[in-house]
Amino acid sequence: MGIGLVQLNMMTTTTMTHGLSWVLSCTLLVTASTKHADLKLRSLRGRGGSAYSIPRGGLFDYISCPNYFGELLEWLGWTIATWSLAGLVWLLFTMATFVPRARHNHQWYQQMFEDYPSQRKALVPFVF
Question: What 3 state SS string does 14-76 have?
């Protein structure tokens, strides 16, 4: 959530002419979605549990890694809002990290659980 607040601060000071309410709405939606995914993953095992289970609900109904998806959207927003080379480089670095990790996690879920939802994608809903 901390990175979301930093991004929100930067975006509000650099995007006044781009429709502040739209930027704020998207930022809050993406931040809330990412936070939901993180909390859901943390709660899967419960206290002291060791069994794995399939995450469900929210974007987990569509993709295996909504936490990665949310963070990619945050950095895409940052790149657009700052319109800077640094933003683009960081977005590309994040993609280079999260795309292979999401594919690996998705394949692990498919191998681990016979009843893993076949329509669920790895990182981008309905696409990949």
Answer: HCHHHCHHHHHHHHHHHHHHHHHHHHHHHHCCCCCCCCCCCCCCHHHHCECCHHHHHHHHHHH
CA–CA distances in Å: residue 116 to residues 6, 9, 39, 42, 53:
36, 39, 20, 19, 10
Residue 80 phi, psi (nearest 5) = -65, -45
Dist. CA 73–CA 80, nearest whole Å: 10
Residue 11: which H helix or E strand, with range? helix 2-14
Say which residue, 77 or 103, is predicted with more confidence: 103
Structural contact between residues 37 and 60, judged by C-beta atoms closer than 8 angstroms: yes
pTM of the model: 0.78
Cα 57 to chain centroid distance, Å, stands at 14
